[in-house]
Structures are given as structure tokens and as C-alpha cells.
Write a structure and sequence with these properties.
about 0% strand; mainly alpha; 2 domains
């Protein structure tokens, strides 16, 4: 099971890296076109560098940025990588900490699942609206709603992750939350040595 989860995590990271590479490449194209636009001879010599053909690059970079942020936070970033205000949480008894963690994980999951339907209802009208420039490049099939579908991937993934976290903490405890990343790495390396 761990190897499957590790493989999925690598696949999610690969998709995020591909989106980042695409965004960077299009950004370079955008900068090149912007600075070559003043020299009219460039567009005359190389018609594919006509600046009016590249209005879509800004929308594409914004689209990739939205997808990278929600994709990464929903499917890649671990719980312990988030900024946490835990002054009270770390100073209570272990049993109280366990129930704090379970309660907060369930609340996060329920809230995220509850916002899916109202958000989808508001997004429904966006199925009719085409993007200003991306449809010129990718065709009429891309709609504004398609751009924001990653939000639903994000909410569903985070809700599932926090439900799993609540179940895990219920069976075990919340003491792993107290380890700093270096302590966590040391503990994992000691566990791997013991497995050998």
C-alpha cells in the first residue's frame, strides 16, 4: 500500500512539475514577444512572432498558476509542511491533543465537502462562457468552468486526506505532530535500520 501511495505521490509531483515547466516556457515566450514587438522587422521577417498572436500567453500562465497552487496544496503538500499556530495544541495533555487533532480534521473535511455543491452551483453558469484568448489556441471546448475544476479536485483531496488523518489519529495518537522534521527524519531512519 505504501508503494502505491508513494507512486501516486510521484505522479502528482510529476504533473505539478510539468505544469510549472509549461508555465515557465510560455512565460519565456511572452517576454520574448513583448520585447521583440517594438522591432516591426522581426514580425515582418518571422510572421509567427506577430505580437497579436500571443495574447493567450497571459491567460495560460494564470491558468497554470491556479492549477499549480490548488494541485500542489491538495495532492502534494503534507500536513506538517503547513504553517501551524500550535501554542495551545503542543502544551496540552496527549489525550486532549489527540481529540483536538481529530476534531479539527473532521471539521476541515466536513467544511470542504459542504462547500462543493454551492460552489458547483455558482460555477454552473461558467460552462457557457469561453475564455477571452485561450479558446483561440485550444479551441472552443475550453470554458471558464474548466479552468477552475481544480478547485473541486483540491477540496475533495484535502477532505479525504483529513478524514484519513482523523482515522489515523484515532487509532494511534497525535504525538507525531510534535516532531520537528529533523526529529521525524531521524525516527524514520532509525525505524529503517531496525527493519534491516
Amino acid at each position: 500500500m505504501k508503494s502505491i501511495l508513494r507512486g501516486l505521490n510521484h505522479a502528482f509531483e510529476f504533473v505539478a512539475a510539468a505544469m510549472m515547466a509549461a508555465m515557465f516556457a510560455i512565460f519565456i515566450v511572452q517576454v520574448t514577444i513583448r520585447y521583440s514587438a517594438r522591432a516591426e522587422w522581426i514580425a515582418d521577417t518571422f510572421p509567427f512572432l506577430e505580437p497579436t498572436l500571443y495574447g493567450w500567453t497571459l491567460d495560460f500562465c494564470l491558468l497554470m498558476w491556479i492549477w499549480i497552487v490548488f494541485w500542489g496544496n491538495g495532492l502534494i503538500v503534507r500536513h506538517r509542511d503547513h504553517v501551524i499556530f500550535d501554542i495551545i495544541y503542543t502544551n496540552v495533555a496527549p489525550n486532549v491533543r489527540k481529540w483536538f487533532a481529530i476534531f479539527s480534521a473532521i471539521v476541515i473535511s466536513v467544511c470542504l465537502l459542504l462547500i462543493i455543491e454551492p460552489t458547483w452551483s455558482k460555477f454552473y453558469i461558467l460552462r457557457l462562457k469561453k475564455t477571452a484568448t485561450l479558446s483561440n489556441v485550444f479551441g472552443d471546448w475550453i470554458r471558464v468552468r474548466d479552468i477552475y475544476l481544480v478547485f473541486f479536485i483540491f477540496t475533495t483531496a484535502v477532505a479525504i486526506r483529513y478524514l484519513w488523518r482523523a482515522q489515523y489519529i484515532f487509532k494511534n495518537d497525535a504525538e507525531e505532530d510534535l516532531f520537528t522534521p529533523t526529529e521525524d527524519n531521524l525516527r524514520l531512519s532509525n525505524r529503517n535500520k531496525n527493519d534491516l
